[in-house]
Every structure is written in structure tokens, then in C-alpha cells.
Amino acid sequence: MTGLDPEQHLTINQTAEALGVSRRTVYRYISEGLLACFKHAGRNYVHRQQIEEYFTRLLGHGDVARVERAKRHRRTVKT
Question: End-to-end CA distance of the chain, in Å?
Fold first, then answer.
């Protein structure tokens, strides 16, 4: 990933792992405006802050179980 900080910019696969969802769900979240992505060198990336904001919105809606499940998946994400 030339020019991008791998600690801050995740691929779609890494984003799916971090959220505990499928790639298809990540693309759906992007199309629904729940996550923003950008293209670099022909690949889509999501900024880690987007994931933090997603978790914050879930907690604000009381979806604690979903957040905890995603956090368990997130520990295994390789950047």
C-alpha cells in the first residue's frame, strides 16, 4: 500500500473482518452511506475512523450485542 498508512486504512476484506460481517455487507454499508470508502491504486479502502464511528452509532442505538460480536472479530484483523 504505497502512500497509505496500513494502520489507518483497511481494505474491504479487513473492514469486513473488523466488523464481523461479509464483504457484501461492507459494500451495502457503503452504498447506504453507513461507511465511506475511497479508491487508491485500484483498490477500495475504508479509514479506521469510519469503523469507530460505525461502532459509536451502533452503541447509540443500543445494539451492544452486535458491537461486542464485532469487537471479538476485530482482534484478529491483520493490517
Answer: 11
* Beta carbons within 8 Å of 31's beta carbon, 6+ residues apart: none
Handedness of CA 21, 25, 59, 34 (dihedral sign): positive
Ramachandran class of 5: left when φ > 0, alpha when ψ lies in -120 to 50, beta otherwise = beta
Entry pTM: 0.69
Distance CA 38, CA 4 (A): 12
52 vs 48: CA distance, rounded Å:
7
pLDDT tens-digit profile, the chain (79 residues): 457 887 789 999 999 998 889 999 999 999 998 899 999 989 999 999 988 888 887 777 666 566 666 666 554 444 4
